Amino acid sequence: MLTIYGDSISGNCLKVKWAADHLGIGYEWIETDVLRDESRSPAFLAINPAGQVPTVVLPDGRALAQSNAIILYLAEGSALIPGSPYDRAKMLEWLFWEQYSHEPYIAVARFQVRYLGKSFSDLDPRLIERGQLALQRLDQAVSASDFLVGSQLTLADIALVAYTRVAGEGGFDLALYPAIQAWIARVEGVLGIAD
């Protein structure tokens, strides 16, 4: 059976859980609290020397890290990865954008506000600006289509909904992005997740 080491407060970990659940892949979830440095223990570092969650251990004992690499592995051959080369490349484009232009701002703001107790006004203005630009880009994309790539849920939606749905916890007002709110509801509905 697959083993997932993850922290339930992490969107990166939850996207792995949601992809596995959606695909009907059985797994054992091992809660790994990053706030308590559990991903820095010698036992965990033996599995993933980078000391990061999520990390999965495959049934054959091999470990795999990085959330988007994991969900790509899990979804291989499924409808979560488009069949057309162009659509598959568009999905990957969103996955790369999520880790470079979305997660570093939306997730970091959320962590600083919710878990470190900072106020939104005390955040680095550049962090806020980049987070708002990411939300504007996403809102524009989901204004034109129900999902990010094609007409059905793909890994792009799973990757981006993870932190977008909790952006308000970082001080971003999702009421300013009605298309995002509708998209979040659609993706949560397909995945069967809720707060």
TrEMBL record:
Transferase among keywords: yes
Enzyme class: transferase
PROSITE patterns noted in UniProt: GST_CTER, GST_NTER
The protein's Enzyme Commission number: 2.5.1.18
Example GO molecular function: glutathione transferase activity
Record domain GST C-terminal: where: 84-195
Protein name: Glutathione S-transferase
Protein source organism: Sphingomonas aerophila
